[in-house]
Amino acid sequence: MGQGAILMRSELDLFGMHIDFASRARRRWLVACVHAGFVAYLTISWFADQWSFSAIIGLPVFLGAAALIFARLTGRYRGKRTLWRDKAPPKSWIGRFLFPADPELRDLPDEQGLQLRDRAHFWSYHALNLGILLIWVLIFMHRQNQIREQMQPAVAGVHRWNSDNLLFGLAAILLFAALTLPDSIILWFTPNMEEAQ
Amino acid sequence: MRTNFVFMGVEINIASRNRRRWLVVAIFFGFAAMVIAWFALRGPSVFGWIVFVAFAALSRFLGGGGYTDGLVPPFEGGDERERNRRFRAHYVAYQFLDFMFLPALIAVAWKANPRNMERFPELRGFFEQLSVALLAAGWILYYTLPQAILRWTEPNLEEQP
After folding, report:
1. pTM
2. Deepest of A176, A192, A196, B158, by most Cβ within 10 A of its Cβ?
3. Please, are residues B147 and B62 in contact by the beta-carbon 8 Å criterion?
């Protein structure tokens, strides 16, 4: 895989536990657990209160935690040692004083790393296709409900509940996918770092 | 990539980067105007269908995806350089996608909560329309942003004297 993959973090302090993520199998387990956890959370939350209070509290926590863990591992928010920048960040005055001979580009991923990043986003983008198409179907359903509501106010509440909840569920799934899918692909496909090192 | 197209019988040259950028701005201005007009027209109307048809026509014109006659070639095939540019355009577009669905989710969540609707009945129509308009805007951006980025970043194709 090259230098791009090595820029990825191979270990993480998660909930006080030091976990080694150099092995690809372990990274894949993490990705599978987070995605299965999201599906389980949505299902439980639906049966608990139809995505009302539990979703308002739980969804931001789940989305934030999943996105941060993945981002931390892939190096999205890791300052200089990042896989996500195209240009090297300027060296701080301390850096210039302490390491004057250090080349500016030392922490940038190589071309292979950038290509992996771009390709992961391309795949993720197209993986969202079905969900995006469903938006139009649900908007159409929503409009039909509005028309029905005007014509038959007595049955409107039932239909409104269905279309509102479906729209909410779809928006939540799309946001979760948008936040986590590229990182998941990178974590899933990057080979074992133990071997690379 | 194409350097000219025919609009209502007039051949328009878009080899220069400046012109292409103006075209991209005009297309997105059109999309924004449609979504805002849709948002302003509260209640059921046929305007949603007009937006859909206009979007389908403009998206076919922009090309990309599986379209062969658009301004951008289909997202399959091409040489290594072309593929890399396509991947990079999707990476850039994805940065917008991350935040596109957050406001839509908040608006839908607000609308779906019956307590909010009981407490603020006057805002019901507003949030009804806002959630639909935000989702529609996200939907339009999803299908057009990578193509727009490709057209925007492409260098000048005009012949140098």
Report:
1. 0.77
2. A176
3. yes
